[in-house]
Amino acid sequence: MQITKHKVASIHYTLTDNDGKILDSSVGREPLTYIQGIGNLIPGMENGLEGKSKGDKFNIKVSPEEGYGVKDEALTQNVPRSGFGNQDIKVGMQFQTEQGGVVTVSKVGLSDITVDANHPLAGVELNFDVEVLEIRGATEEELAHGHVHGPGGHHH
Fold first, then answer.
1. Is the pLDDT of residue 155 over 70?
2. Which terminus of the chain has fewer Cβ atoms in its 10 Å neighbourhood, N or C?
3. Residue 56: which domain range?
């Protein structure tokens, strides 16, 4: 069986940047289990998994356009330090906005804090080492809910 639309696939992956720094990995944890072709993964990952079979081991290189997007400088802004109260602000801290989004602190100045609403991996070329562990058809209930149920998935 191959990974095609509406198939449930379980994979192990290790995600690195172009410098080889590990950004995320499922190794040593439960595998990632998802439904192919319904947007559960970034487009470049789904495209790279399409047609693969159980036991396949391979690499997928994902451009920013097919990953978390190109970095948009318009999503970076300076906020007066007073807007953060007396908190000790450090680069890398994240805050939820009043609109429900998330911003990451990218620079701490004496009077201003620079925050970035881009995804932390926006503009980054992603490298996935992948192993396909299992493939099966998705149930009608999984397709209706838009996610996997049972082991490796959601439990209602």
1. no
2. C
3. 7-68+122-145
Q: How far apart are CA 102 and CA 115, in angstroms?
A: 10
pLDDT at 44 over 90: yes
Name the CA radius of gyration of the chain, rounded: 19
Q: What are phi and psi of 41, to 5 degrees?
A: -120, 165
Q: How many domains does the chain have?
A: 2
Domain-located, residue 152: no
- Identify which of 103, 138, 146 has the alpha carbon closest to the alpha carbon of residue 7: 138
77 and 43, same structural domain? Answer: no
What letter does residue 117 receive in the DSSP assignment?
-
48 C-beta neighbours (distance < 10 Å), count: 20
pTM value is: 0.81
Predicted confidence (pLDDT) at residue 101 exceeds the cutoff of 90: no
Q: Within this chain, do residues 107 and 89 fall inside the same structural domain, yes or no?
A: yes
77 three-class SS: strand
Contacts of 88 by beta carbon, 8 Å cutoff, 6+ apart: none
CA distances from 96 to 93, 111, 154 (A): 10, 21, 25
DSSP bridge pairs for 82: none
SS3 139: coil
